């Protein structure tokens, strides 16, 4: 039975079986987010209790053909579901909450997060798992929650989405501090600063283990304030007074949405929101009080054509070139309301996420072809990151002064460079650990060692279907994309005689209609094969299919070095009752 929760007042590839738990030892088990950007999730384990932090998704790379996204493999948590004391969420970005609709059907525990974060989880659940109702527990920065042996303190942090928190998790072995995604923005749009004092206080009391965001460790200095974009917005509004302004941004960056709305009001422009995720996030943030927009400023999408170009700003999704986003549909001339032309200027207030460069570049090219002015170069001050740069990471290390350090949230080179950075601030090299998903770190008050592994990896999501990240579906799709497919259709009688000539078709391979010699050789080869097998081929279609694959492959090898997938279709026509295949 799980320990009872108490709360203080506000304000203030391996086996999935658990390794033997020694009393007095703490385990840190990352199940995602290490060596990759996305699907962030880790577990802390002490005695019989497990605390889970975040459960995100990762967007597919170019080789994951047709895959919507990837979620973490939580087999270890499933097999120990009765030991989970709670799930803590740091903020509402997809890479931290996007896996919850799939996980919460397999594990059940109270879900702790700030008001906006839980609101975004609710939207995700309604879309992907409407039959599930999580046990939501709202918290805010400054709260403390006790879950069995874990006492969790929530620390305000600045990020590119409101209401993010870092964590100080007090355990019987020592305190684990997790920064969450953060930056040290001195002038945040909502006035909510990263709580330097809280991090410093944890350092004063003693931090056993620090887990810190590594995304921007390669960037020197400090990340610019979100407020620095106000100058860029003012410049665009002044320069294009007579044109309709289209601004593409991350739908979750509500601070940026607020700046656009405020600037539009100063220049007497109306604002229209376009794109499903943009509309949902704006509606949620307004209802919860995180976004302040006067109703008189907002116009509905359907009203856009009736507003003069110089009196309108359109905020849309599509800053990453997503195929069905608002901006991309506009650039293709396929948006049902907005047609772009010379009276428009498009500003893309984001830089491409690694892997999206071609999509963004293609979108920009099409926008220019529409006759728009386009503002997109980084030098024009159109984006600032939500993640801390090197000097900010050093400050956190110096504030917390951890005994042990594990860099998280980054590709492998980011983790290595962050571990080295920790050495510059006084963390002993032997106490900075570059871990991989599934590694198990065992800690006591004086020692930390990485030993043992649990199952960890990725699960593909393709529509409503789930599959192993390294499974056969991706292999088949990759082969089809690279080599193509050849279809062979054979219709025969029960006696094993062909009832018509074999037919052939191909996709992504040689066009057989243009290769008469090859088609003739294939037909002759298959006809001889069917004749040689006779009744045996009709009685055992699977045997015949296997033989056809071999014969066709031999023939194709002499015409092309490619190795297309060969798909035989054998139909045996019975003498009295239809047919079978």
Summarize the structure in words.
The chain is an alpha/beta fold and 581 residues long. The chain folds into 3 domains: 282 residues, Ribonuclease Z/Hydroxyacylglutathione hydrolase-like (Metallo-beta-lactamase, Chain A), CATH 3.60.15.10; 155 residues, Metallo-hydrolase/oxidoreductase (Rossmann fold); 97 residues, Ubiquitin-like (UB roll) (Roll), CATH 3.10.20. It contains 16 helices and 27 strands. The strands form 5 sheets. The chain has an 8-stranded mixed sheet with strand order 8-7-6-4-3-2-20-21. Helix 5 packs across helix 11 and helix 14 runs antiparallel to helix 16. The protein is globular and about 85 Å long. The protein starts with a strand and ends with a strand.
Topology readout:
Elements: E1 5-7, E2 26-32, E3 41-46, E4 49-53, E5 69-72, H1 75-79, E6 84-88, H2 94-97, H3 100-103, E7 111-113, H4 115-128, E8 136-138, E9 144-147, E10 150-157, E11 164-170, E12 175-178, H5 196-205, E13 209-213, H6 229-239, E14 244-248, H7 254-266, E15 270-274, H8 276-288, E16 312-316, H9 326-331, E17 344-348, H10 357-369, E18 373-375, H11 390-400, E19 404-408, H12 412-424, E20 439-443, E21 448-453, E22 458-462, E23 465-468, H13 472-483, E24 485-493, E25 503-507, H14 516-533, H15 535-539, H16 541-557, E26 565-573, E27 579-580
Parallel strand pairs: 4-6, 6-7, 7-8, 12-13, 13-19, 14-16, 14-17, 15-16, 17-18, 24-26
Antiparallel strand pairs: 1-9, 2-3, 2-20, 3-4, 5-22, 9-10, 10-11, 11-12, 20-21, 22-23, 24-25, 26-27
